[in-house]
Amino acid sequence: MSSSGTITSPPPAGAPMAEAPMQRQKRGRGGLIAVVAIVVIIIIVLGAGYGLGWFKSSTTKSTPSACTLPSAITLKGEGSTLVAPLMDQWATSYWTGSAITYDSAGSSAGIQAVSTKVVDFGASDAPLTSAQRTAAPGIVMVPESAGGVVPIYNVANLKAALNFNGTVLAQIFDGTITNWNNTALQTLNPGVVLPVQTILPIYRSGGSGTTFIFTSFLSLDNHYWNTTYNKNTTWPSGLPGTAESGNGGVATAVATTPWAIGYVDLNYAQGTSGIGIGSVENPSGKFIHATVADTASALATISSASGFSLPAAGASWYNVSFLNSPGATDYPITSLTYLLVYQNLSAAYPAYALNNAENLVDFLHWVITTGQTWSALLYYVPLPAFIVNDDNATVNSMTFNGAAIPVCVPTGGAS
Q1: Rounded mean pLDDT of the chain?
Q2: I need a labelling partner for 146 at 20 to 30 A (CA). Which of 10, 53, 75, 302 fits?
Q3: How far, in Å, CA of 45 to CA of 373, rounded?
Q4: pLDDT of the residue at 19
């Protein structure tokens, strides 16, 4: 965690300043020269002031709470690359003196790391499977953000975003559609002249929560993909294309490879030059170009549906889905991402002291409340109130030596 710097304050208002003796000037060039000199001095002073931080907004690090914070330690996390930009912001902005370190090695790596208890928390865009829950009993899922996965491409000289649907995307990535000017793709983009170029798919290597979200969407929209490949964190073997590590690796590969196509989280798409971001058809027949508002709308539509409820702490989240939300403005490839922690911390980590447990629950409570103020700035969806309430209940259910864990959450969010 980086430490906050000292902000140098400007001289107090009204403080006396040294002045040159005033002299009456004759009219002419001398007056103009004096004015220019004054302007130059003002520019120099303003420049120095900005450099010293006189005119900057207040620090975005959270501030101490009125309660007593636990002694500082280092909390270690590992997992999702999708959420890495937001996690890095949280690590920088969290105040307590404690450091947060995060290794964005991928969702499968995060699940493995927390299952083997070499980290304090894991992060995954894919819920635990039944086998993973059996292998690591006692883990609870804490949704910590939501976002959209978008198709990205590198096709020159296009004036507008390309339209896709789930069926065409599945056929592109399974090798059925091989050229950009394919009739099915051209039909979705009337009036657009698509090149006679071979499509070069780029997909994620290793176990990836982003792959899980994307293949889950393809399975919903394309029967062949569903019956042949289904949803999985690992990309199906034998399909055409090139594997790249992490969301960042896919985004960079697409940006530097003419005629390529890939899939990444919206944050990486917005942050990478040289790529196009596709619009995706939702169940209402609308082509949606992903924004934070469209992904938030998908969460709201599904959560308000009759019979919707979130799983209890410790129960399976595997079938929780916000994909293909039916609202007219809903982005169809929307999903939650999760933090993975143990409910009984003393049983999971025999070397833990109460101080370790307090630091972890304080950070979790901060992430799902104050930490959300950074979400939209980085193209993630701030958690809606019903998920925040559920998360708080889950974190409050965590124990140490059979007792509830004292909570003291720092205050202050993004300004």
Answers
A1: 87
A2: 75
A3: 34
A4: 35
Structure tokens at 141: 């899922």
How is residue 108 annotated by DSSP?
H
| Helix segments in 307-353, DSSP class H | 345-348
> CB count, 10 Å around CB of 51?
9
- Distances from the Cα of 7 to the Cαs of 59, 89, 167, 244, in angstroms? 9, 20, 54, 42
Is residue 97 very low, low, confident or very high in pLDDT (cuts 50, 70, 90)?
Answer: confident
Would you tell me how many other CB atoms lie within 10 Å of the CB of residue 408?
Answer: 18
Cβ atoms < 10 Å from Cβ of 5: 9
- pLDDT tens readout for residues 150-180: 999 999 999 899 999 999 999 999 999 999 9
Cβ neighbours around 101 below 10 Å, total: 13
Which tokens sit at 393? 């209940």
Distance CA 160, CA 270 (A): 15
pLDDT 10s digits, 315-359: 999 999 999 999 999 999 999 999 999 999 999 999 999 999 999
Assigned token pair, 399: 């124990």
Please state, as a whole number, how many other Cβ atoms lie within 10 Å of the Cβ of residue 351. Answer: 7
Closest C-alpha among 138, 148, 129, 121 to residue 368: 121
**CA-to-CA dists, residue 236 to 110, 229, 397, angstroms:** 21, 6, 38
Among 254, 247, 243, 273, CA closest to 153: 254
Asked if 322 contacts 302 with a C-beta cutoff of 8 angstroms, the reply is yes
Q: Is the pLDDT of residue 190 over 70?
A: yes
Tokens of 63: 């501030």
All domains of the chain in start order, with CATH: 74-145+335-404 (3.40.190.10), 148-303 (3.40.190.10)
Q: Tell me the whole-structure pTM to 2 decimals.
A: 0.83
Single-letter code of the amino acid located at 307: G
d(CA 77, CA 118): 9
Pairing verdict, β 200-204 and 242-244: parallel
Strand partners, 293: none
- Measured CA to CA, the distance from residue 30 to residue 14 in angstroms comes to 29
Question: Scanning the structure block, which residue is given the tokens 């949704």?
Answer: 143
pLDDT digit string (tens) for 295-306? 999 999 999 998
Find the DSSP H helices in 121-208: 130-135, 166-173, 183-188
Cα distances from 238 to residues 203, 242, 400, in angstroms, run 12, 11, 47
